[in-house]
From TrEMBL:
Keywords: ATP-binding, Cytochrome c-type biogenesis, Nucleotide-binding, Transport. It comes from the Bacteria. Residues 12-224 form the ABC transporter domain. The keyword S-adenosyl-L-methionine does not apply. This is Heme exporter protein A/Cu-processing system ATP-binding protein. GO terms for biological process: cytochrome complex assembly. One of its GO terms (molecular function) is transmembrane transporter activity.
Length: 226
């Protein structure tokens, strides 16, 4: 339910949020905030609700209790549709048209969002996909598809980047790419929330870690080394 007071100091803030999935409670009394320029790592057991929280932050899943704001839009309000283009959710499966080439996918997105097609080629180059740009998306490996997703993020310059299973399908050398993309979002005053089961890699990408336990968010004490 919408809060009457928008929070402008945070990219996203949730207060006492409750979320059901298929009528079953998943998140309960959850408080969570992410500030401009910040990267938060999200950890927790399988099924604890990490992906669910990302969908809430993406404004795709309205809470059944509590309140929150994302990019100034109250969760559950019509304003969510306005801010949604400034949120990038990179999920388990790639959001690519399988029969189009990687380049066609990115150029199509560039046109849709009012950008030059050349910007699509630049984004593909930045993620090391220039050589595979003419390959159909469904012929790409999982790691290549993930790189194409990161190119999508570079192209659309979101204020809030939500990365689910950030390191899945990426070789160790590609971890730097995930961090670089998140860093670029942060440099522009945006924020990122990164889910990963690879805690060692996550610590390299996040300012702090938050764990989802029994539907609530709690800080993970071990600090990220400076
Ligand atoms: N489409 C769905 N239908 C029914 N239940 C669902 C659905 N999606 C998620 N759930 C349930 O919601 C709960 C939270 O799932 P969620 O995917 O958010 O967890 P997670 O922490 O991201 O898990 P994992 O680490 O395994 O990816 C789980 O109990 C899951 O079974």
């Amino acid at each position: 339910m919408p809060s009457p007071v928008p929070d402008t100091d945070h990219v996203a803030m949730l207060v006492g949020v409750a979320v059901d999935v298929e009528r079953a409670p998943v998140l309960r009394s959850l408080d969570f905030a992410v500030a401009p320029g910040e990267s938060v790592g999200l950890v927790g057991a399988n099924g604890s609700g990490k992906s669910t929280l990302l969908r809430v932050l993406a404004t795709l899943l309205p809470p059944v209790g509590g309140h929150g704001h994302v990019l100034g839009a109250a969760l559950g309000s019509a304003e969510c549709a306005v801010v949604r283009p400034r949120i990038a959710l990179v999920g388990h499966t790639a959001a690519l048209y399988p029969r189009l080439t990687v380049r066609e996918n990115l150029r199509f997105l560039a046109r849709l969002t009012g950008r030059r097609e050349h910007a699509a080629d630049e984004a593909l180059e930045a993620v090391g996909l220039a050589g595979a740009a003419d390959r159909r998306a469904d012929a790409c490996s999982q790691g290549m598809q993930r790189r194409a997703e990161l190119a999508r993020v570079l192209l659309t310059e979101p204020r809030l980047l939500l990365l689910d299973e950030a390191h899945t399908g990426l070789d160790p050398a590609s971890t730097g790419l995930v961090n670089a993309v998140a860093e670029q979002v942060r440099e522009r005053g945006g924020a990122s929330v990164v889910v990963s089961h690879d805690h060692a890699r996550l610590r390299g990408a996040a300012d702090r870690l938050v764990e989802i336990v029994e539907g609530r968010a709690r800080p993970v004490r071990a600090e990220v080394p400076a």
